[in-house]
Amino acid sequence: MSWNASYKLSWNDFKDKPNPNTSAVAITASGITFGFSVKQTDAQVVSFKADVFAHFYPEQSWYKSNLADSHVLSHEQFHFNITELYARKFRQRISLLKTSNNIKKELNQLYKIIKMELGEMQNRYDNESNYSRNIEKQTKWETYITEELNKLSIFKSVD
Questions:
Q1: 2, 83 in Cβ contact below 8 A?
Q2: What is the Cα–Cα distance from 102 to 106, expressed in whole angstroms?
Q3: Would the pTM count as exceeding 0.70?
C-alpha cells in the first residue's frame, strides 16, 4: 500500500499474526522502493528518471488487539509518515543530482544513505517516545514529523 495524504491506517490494514514473544503492541512494516531509467547516446548518459515510493506492508504488520488502541494506531501511522518523509527527502536529493555517467552509482548510493537515515529516525522515534508511552514526547514527534512533511510538500507522494 502506497502512502497517501488522505488515507490513514486502520487496524484492518495490519494482516500479520502478532508476535507473542515481544512486548511490542504493534509493528508497522514500511519502506521505500525506487527505480530509475537512464537514456544514453553511445556511451554518454543524456538523461535519467527516478521513481520513489513509500510503502506500508500489511502482510508484515501486526497488532495485539487486546492491547492496541487509537493512541497506538496513531503512533504506527507516524512510523508510516516517517517513511513518507524520507521518500520526500530522497526525491529532493535526486532532484539535485546532475546527469552524468555515474548517475546509476550515485542513485544507488543515495538510496543506501536514505535507508540508513530512515532506520535511524524510526529507532529514535520509538526510543524517545518510549513506543508512544511518553505522551509529551509522542506529541512533540507528531508535530515535528508533520512540520517536516509540510516543508517538503513539493516532493510528496502522488495520491
A1: no
A2: 6
A3: yes
